[in-house]
Design goal:
The complex is a heterodimer of chains A (503) and B (119). Chain A has 21 helices and two strands. Chain A is globular, with a radius of gyration of 22 Å. Chain B is mostly helical. Chain B has one domain: Helix Hairpins (Orthogonal Bundle), CATH 1.10.287. Chain B contains four helices and no strands. The chains are: A mainly alpha (503), B mainly alpha (119). Chains A and B meet through α6 and α7 of A and α2, α3 and α4 of B.
């Protein structure tokens, strides 16, 4: 019982220690780094599975770090939302690490491999910590750990573009965390507490005394987390950073790093400030407006990109809009769908970015108009890509459909049926920029590959020429999307446990 | 307008002004080193804000002294948190400067007018 409540702490500390071992091992023997990093991540994944099992029994784990009890000490708390996010983060990271084995040799210089794994494990530790932390200042520190190491993941490629993108990301992310820190300062000034639950208890008593301060604090948090999570008008860093990073980094940045800030935002907004403030101030209307702008604007911008990874990056902007829409609706279905979309989108974007990496690895093609005949050259990769693209559009049987359906139900619950139109429109826009890629891959002849006058044209299936360590993560991600699309019940029940606490 | 209140709470006013200044510098200055300086001004203003929150006029350092059992202490927590904040700010500055050195090798300049352009 007691030893189980310590597990979240180990989940944070194992990758942290492993990350600092990496440069040492890289100096001694470069080959040890990758298996060791995978071992650490796998250990975290197993621990999170144990935590997930205990939390699914209705237990809430709470651990006071170094024995200082909550009002003054740092508390780590795992409810069902954090448990599911921990499992997602460590599981997806594990697959991305397996993908990195081969991809890193191709995309990075040999000298930086050790540092790449350092940044990766540091980022993992920051993300897991951010999800389990129940103390807002501790959240800030972990936001910075995850943020700076994410910048390092972008910069690790070392090209001109990626360095520029990393600096842009670093500057804007620091502005974002500055805003968050100022907001934390305001909360501390009003309530004198940092623990989320104590803040909530204090705020519910004194919220009428400081109406303007609470408005100010909320707007600071919205701007700060908005920059961090790339909410539409504040997304400027995202396309550059995600498109110029090496593809495993893009996958982890796009599918996980952006999401943990949303989880932290939900925690601050719905638990610390509480539902009364959430409904009394017009913060949810602001979030809905920004989310709608993101869903449409992100898709429009994605439509005009010709580089595949840039298109995927802008698509992330649009999908973050979906998640924020779910939060802004604030109804049980809306929130559950938003949380489900975090999961589904993590699987979809990881799959798409890994496919982009695999395609660049085998054929060197990076533009969306070079996909002709790709379905025959790389059938398994393109198959996974197609699954993820269909899910992105929201076709039934794939995970994306369930979350969009939930969002539609949520907007009915919130008496805003006009939002269904926006959801459908955004889904159609998604179709306009994903279907040409898929269509080209299967229904058009390859002018590039068939130039070597082999027996027949490109209309014959060949086996993918990528290593098995790249193929397995892609296939597992695609299977995950299909699983979420057909059997969403287990996950939704798990999420609903949290929704009952939140709402 | 209650000027006396503003005068009494001038650390807050100063920190808000510095914060706005820092944010403006980061977003508008084309020179990359100036952007980093802007980041530093911004974070320093937050440190000032936290220290002002923790301060109590007439308080003494929060160390137990048996001679003054009824002593009036300053809140130590914000100062401790700002030590962490200073470390974070330091590492961000170091990382940003390292990236700027690398960009200088690529471009031969640290002035980037098109840097924040949307692509």
């Amino acid at each position: 019982m007691d030893s189980i409540s310590k597990l979240p702490f180990y989940c944070v500390i194992i990758p942290l220690i492993a990350s600092f071992c990496m440069p040492v091992f890289a100096r001694w023997k470069k080959e040890v780094c990758a298996p060791l990093a995978t071992l650490a991540t796998a250990a975290v994944f197993i621990l999170t599975l144990i935590i997930g099992y205990h939390v699914s029994q209705g237990q809430v784990l709470s651990y006071a770090v170094s024995g200082w009890d909550p009002p003054w000490g740092i508390e780590m708390m795992v409810d069902s939302l954090s448990a599911i996010m921990m499992m997602l983060i460590s599981g997806v990271s594990l697959f991305i690490l397996i993908f990195s084995f081969a991809a890193i040799k191709y995309e990075l210089e040999r000298i930086v491999t050790g540092w790449y794994y350092t940044a990766f494990l540091l980022c993992l530790s920051g993300m897991v910590g951010l999800v389990v932390s129940n103390d807002i200042f501790n959240m800030y520190v972990l936001i910075e750990i995850a943020g700076i190491s994410a910048c390092a993941l972008v910069a690790s490629k070392g090209t001109r573009l990626s360095t520029e993108a990393a600096l842009k990301y670093l500057l804007l992310a620091t502005i974002g965390s500055g805003f968050i820190l100022f907001g934390i300062g305001f909360i501390y000034m009003i309530t004198g507490h940092l623990n989320v639950h104590y803040v909530a208890a204090e705020l519910s008593v004194i919220k009428d005394q400081y109406p303007i301060l609470i408005w100010t604090t909320l707007s600071f948090f919205v701007v700060g987390f908005g920059v961090k999570a790339a909410l539409f008008p504040l997304h400027l860093w995202l396309p550059d950073a995600h498109s110029s990073a090496p593809s495993p980094s893009s996958a982890i940045l796009s599918s996980l790093v952006v999401k943990v800030y949303i989880i932290a935002f939900v925690r601050v907004l719905l638990i610390a400030f509480g539902l009364e403030i959430f409904h009394e101030t017009f913060i949810r209307h602001l979030i809905i407006v920004l989310a709608v702008m993101a869903m449409l604007g992100g898709s429009f911008f994605a439509f005009v990109q010709i580089e595949l990874k840039r298109r995927l990056a802008y698509s992330t902007v649009a999908q973050v809009g979906y998640i924020f829409l779910g939060i802004g609706l604030g109804t049980p279905w809306g929130l559950a769908a938003g949380m489900l979309h975090i999961l589904v989108h993590a699987f979809m974007k990881t799959c798409l970015f890994l496919c982009a990496g695999a395609i660049a690895y085998q054929t060197g093609r990076k533009q969306v108009n070079e996909f002709a005949g790709m379905g025959y050259l790389m059938p398994i990769t393109m198959g996974a890509f197609t699954v993820a693209a269909f899910s992105m559009v929201g076709i039934p049987l794939f995970g994306g459909f369930i979350s969009k359906y939930g969002l539609a139900l949520g907007s009915l619950e919130a008496d805003l049926p006009i939002l269904i139109l926006v959801i459908v429109l955004s889904g159609l826009l998604n179709a306009t920029y994903y279907f040409p890629i898929v269509g080209q891959a299967y229904f058009s002849q390859d002018e590039h590959g068939s130039g070597d006058h082999d027996d027949s044209s490109g209309s014959k299936f060949k086996r993918d020429q990528i290593p098995l360590s790249m193929l397995i993560p892609i296939v597992f991600m695609a299977l995950g999307i299909i699983y979420l699309g057909i059997f969403p019940g287990t996950i939704l029940n798990f999420i609903n446990q949290t929704i009952e606490i939140l709402l | 307008m209650n000027f006396e209140l503003i005068f009494l709470n001038f650390p807050y006013v100063v920190s808000i002004i510095l914060f706005s200044m820092g944010t403006l510098i980061v977003l508008t200055q084309p020179n990359l080193v100036k952007k980093v300086i802007g980041i530093n001004i911004m974070e320093t203003s937050i440190f000032l804000f936290f220290i002002a929150v923790g301060n109590a006029y007439g308080g003494i350092p929060p160390i137990y002294d048996p001679n003054y059992p009824q002593a009036f202490y300053v809140n130590p927590l914000p100062s401790v948190m700002m030590l962490t904040g200073i470390v974070v700010s330091f590492s961000v500055t170091a990382f940003a400067l390292a990236l700027i050195v690398k960009l200088y090798i690529y471009y031969g300049t640290i002035s980037a007018p098109n840097f924040m352009k949307l692509k």
